[in-house]
Write a structure and sequence with these properties.
This protein has 190 residues and is of the alpha+beta class. Helices cover 17% and strands 13% of the residues. Strands 3-4-5-6 form a four-stranded antiparallel β-sheet. Strands 1-2 form a two-stranded antiparallel sheet. It is globular.
Length: 190
């Protein structure tokens, strides 16, 4: 890029500013490795920082507005490497909803919900993977074997389309992300 003063000397990119989602997730994971306290959940009680539950927070199923908000924010299944569209996903409580004590459990609010396809919802429910919601709704996933991966909401980098594949997902401790499938430059004929 050319400097704002119009001089002919090119500006070199600032190496401290991530240039892609892969480097952003890598930077977050590196920061967590350097300071494990950064992996603490933003709202460990599942109440989104609220002191009183808003309307609908103590019911299991989210209302249409909350569902639309979570779908728009996430855009796709939040499990590492999965790009199933949000419309085909289930909404999952990050901190478990307690039907017998809803005030103490995770509330049904956008801050405590995320999109998961049925398969990845089952993996979380079975305890094979756990998830921690970090600031900015970044999701830190940890497997039973200690593999970690980080996903960002679609709103962090724009919409997925047939022409813009999902960003790479960074992982640690032996996790090898699957490469994004090659996409055609032309949209499907339908």
């Amino acid at each position: 890029p050319t400097p704002p003063d119009g001089s002919a000397s090119p500006m070199l990119p600032d190496p401290s500013v991530p240039s892609s989602i892969g480097t952003i997730t890598d930077a977050i994971l590196a920061a967590i490795d350097a300071d494990p306290t950064l992996a603490r959940p933003e709202h460990p009680d599942g109440h989104g920082g609220l002191t009183a539950p808003p309307d609908g927070a103590l019911t299991y199923r989210p209302d249409a507005a909350t569902t639309a908000l979570v779908h728009a924010r996430d855009g796709h299944c939040r499990f590492p490497g999965c790009t199933r569209p949000a419309a085909g996903c289930q909404l999952d409580h990050i901190i478990e909803y307690r039907p017998h004590d809803p005030i103490a459990g995770g509330w049904t609010i956008a801050a405590n919900l995320h999109c998961l396809c049925q398969f990845h919802h089952q993996l979380k429910t079975l305890g094979l993977w756990t998830v921690t919601a970090l600031p900015g709704h970044a999701m830190l996933w940890t497997s039973r074997t200690g593999t970690t991966a980080l996903t960002l909401p679609t709103g962090a980098h724009g919409s997925h389309t047939m022409k813009t594949p999902a960003p790479p997902i960074s992982g640690r401790r032996g996790h090898t992300p699957r490469p994004s499938p090659a996409t055609s430059p032309d949209p499907p004929p339908f």
